[in-house]
Specification:
Elements: E1 2-4, H1 9-20, E2 28-32, H2 35-49, E3 53-57, E4 76-79, H3 89-92, H4 95-107, H5 110-123, E5 127-131, H6 144-164, E6 170-175, E7 178-179, E8 194-195, H7 197-209, E9 214-216, H8 219-229, H9 233-236
Parallel strand pairs: 1-2, 1-4, 2-3, 4-5, 5-6, 6-9, 7-8
Helix pairs in contact: 1-7, 4-6
EC number: 1.1.1.100
Keywords: Membrane, Oxidoreductase, Transmembrane, Transmembrane helix
Protein name: 3-oxoacyl-[acyl-carrier-protein] reductase FabG
Amino acid sequence: MIVLGSTSEVAQAFVEKALQEGEKFEKIYLFTSNKETTERFARHIDVKFLQQSEVIELDLMKEIDYNKFDYINSNVLFCAVGYLGEGTEEGLYDNKNTERIININYSKLIPVMNYFAHKFESRRSGTIIGLSSVAGDRGRQSNFIYGSAKAAFTAYLSGLRNYLFSKKVHVLTVKPGFMATKMTEGLPLNPKLTATPKQAAACIYKAFKKQKDVAYVLPIWSIMMMIIRNIPEFIFKKLKL
């Protein structure tokens, strides 16, 4: 299995869930921009599950030498790369903040996804799991820069799913709502709308095994976002969301 964004609590919870369910991986490739943190997780799954892994440094903000990844083969790719950024008004007009949100969530990520997608296509098997966001379902004033990047990522995964279907490769789009993670620490999240990484991992693993195309981590988000998507624009633009 390939894990992009392996410091993510959801990614790590998914790896553990898969191993607990008896999934067998010759090796798990843990791509990360924080090698020290990821190495601790690698030691953890080695001790707990006797699972061999390899930690690989990957910084999306730097030039990537794809030749270094030629030897990697996998049947599952789990992408949990994400960057929320600063959502305040000051953050909105901070171009460095804006560029980082767009680069990490979309523009610098897609070439990496395409590189591995091509490997899956050549082998004509496997599953690609991408964590997008409900923020991409409709632009809202509270986080529309982040939401626009996630909307682009959702569209990419939809097109990739369509393209790879005839090549026997499955693509699953996951849309978490509020998540109790380090990225959202300190934010006033409604507990009824917030999932833990373990809850998310269980939902994602179930969707993975059922070969679903799109999965919301908590079912209530599917209903909420359907309502939000269908509010007429002349009303929606006046709302504080």
